[in-house]
Structure to design on (664 residues):
């Protein structure tokens, strides 16, 4: 029910992925009458026997405070969907709804692994060398050094599993590359990371280093990560809008635009936000994926595919296993 | 002497601005023999009587720690140039050198106004509506609420004076627009700003809001501002490099590229980092402008013009005057 367009996006996206993945089963949780009519009007050529509907009388709204949703919305579609992951009735939950409420329900119902203080929100971002993972993107505003270390490990597990990268490099986002730069937490995190031999920590990365792709995993606190991600979106939109402007002004501009547009579309897909939809809540004992609230059908399919990949690659289990190596390391 | 190319950039840039501004006098501080030969080889058609040379036996390097430069490099070109602003021998100092050392010398020699804890680094960034001012860009890693309030006022003075904007709007950079978002310092700063009637504080701004230009001044701590600025540079370079790529591949791509390139150049100038060169150290009792270390001649002329504008508009004095309105406000 979440996101700007609710089931008008989530249902066609589910039908699209269902048609491509005949081995998967889907559970749509929400207002059953609304879901039923939309599903039947859109599924003309699709076998819907693998799509189950589960009724939820209410929905979490974008304006709900996480604490309010957690306390009073236990009959919401979001709660029921997360609970299904907890009980094993579902392998993963994908939501386009209220991020804070989803995080609160994820923590309450699924719990984090021992050794993980709080989950981190993680997304891939396009870079000159492919993509890198950036975390945390807003779940943890004030981070202790130990949390930055946990994020590093979880991001490395994701890069190793999803990209078959045996030794992903990790950088801490900072305002300079010298040892003396940054605040106490970052400097302590750098020290702790250098003592975890299983992790390939390479040092500090500056803001522009994210997009040159000099490391596979870029770690920062949730405030900085959220600003970095949204600034990136803002700059990308600003620049692509300006390209549209110059090819829309004057006869010559429009003429050149007609010729250049197919190539510019190719350019646009290289950093297309839709392709990078699907943020992971790492550190939970289960798979919880957040789709962007403004996602369209195509974009939501990427969030669904992210969830499928997390289950296939057993990301949560891998994080749990990797944690053990750190605790072993600490004991010695 | 500072920046990647030293006097090979600063001298021709000075000659260019000197030719355009016959009322100005320039003082070049550095290695006199090097400056003399470069100046005479490049000034064929320019009257150099308005350009004085002052010898400095040493230069601050990019690797010098600010504390080291402050203590041991009092015969450096940077120290001598800043000292000239203090003594009144110069109206402004422009440097492409070590930012931390320049800040340390600025604070030590020029001092901040009473009521300003530390200077803030401020730069204009291009937006959909023209440009906005972003500060702090790295001088203050951990900021108290009161400092964010000081930055807001100083950014507003800059926008009001330089852009003849009688009532510049101010936003605090945050990870959401709701009152509950952000850390304690930001929430307290928002409260304090709403109590300063001379300032047009409009609320929180998210990372992507910087580039839509919804406020004239965007305020944040120096860590976040530095990351935001460098992420912006990284994304812009990533996207412009990708445009070059698509117009350089294949016969068709190169053909279209030849037609589209003049328009793309126009696009590029809209966010051209060279045009936005020249960061101000606001809050000092004098004008100190930092040019990007990688600036070329054209770019360095913008830093020089920024300094001229600060002196013309008496930015430092305006900041001092505006501070008085706040202290008056606090007393009531």
């Amino acid at each position: 029910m979440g996101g700007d367009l609710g089931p008008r996006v989530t249902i066609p996206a589910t039908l699209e992925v269902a048609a491509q993945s005949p081995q998967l089963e889907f559970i749509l949780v929400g207002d059953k009458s609304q879901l039923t009519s939309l599903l039947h009007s859109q599924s003309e050529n699709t076998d819907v026997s693998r799509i189950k509907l589960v009724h939820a009388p209410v929905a979490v709204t974008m304006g709900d405070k996480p604490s309010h949703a957690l306390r009073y919305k236990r009959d919401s579609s979001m709660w029921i969907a997360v609970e299904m992951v907890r009980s094993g009735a579902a392998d993963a939950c994908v939501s386009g709804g209220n991020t804070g409420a989803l995080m609160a329900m994820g923590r309450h119902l699924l719990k984090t692994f021992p050794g993980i203080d709080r989950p981190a929100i993680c997304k891939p971002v396009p870079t000159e060398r492919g993509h890198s993972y950036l975390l945390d993107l807003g779940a943890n505003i004030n981070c202790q050094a130990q949390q930055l270390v946990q994020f590093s490990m979880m991001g490395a597990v994701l890069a190793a599993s999803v990209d078959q990268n045996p030794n992903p490099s990790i950088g801490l986002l900072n305002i300079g590359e010298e040892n003396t730069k940054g605040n106490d937490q970052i400097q302590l995190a750098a020290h702790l990371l250098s003592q975890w031999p299983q992790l390939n920590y390479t040092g500090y990365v500056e803001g522009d280093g994210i997009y040159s792709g000099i490391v596979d995993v870029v770690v920062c606190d949730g405030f900085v990560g959220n600003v970095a991600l949204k600034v990136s979106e803002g700059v990308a939109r600003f620049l692509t809008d300006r390209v549209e402007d110059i090819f829309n002004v004057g006869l010559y501009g429009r003429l050149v635009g007609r010729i250049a547009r197919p190539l510019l579309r190719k350019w646009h897909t290289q950093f297309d936000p839709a392709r990078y939809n699907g943020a992971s809540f790492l550190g939970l004992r289960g798979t919880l994926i957040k789709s962007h609230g403004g996602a369209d059908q195509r974009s939501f399919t990427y969030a669904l595919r992210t969830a499928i990949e997390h289950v296939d690659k057993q990301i949560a289990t891998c994080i749990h296993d990797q944690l053990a190596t750190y605790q072993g390391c600490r004991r010695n």
Notes: Chain B touches chain A through 53 residues (CB under 8 Å).
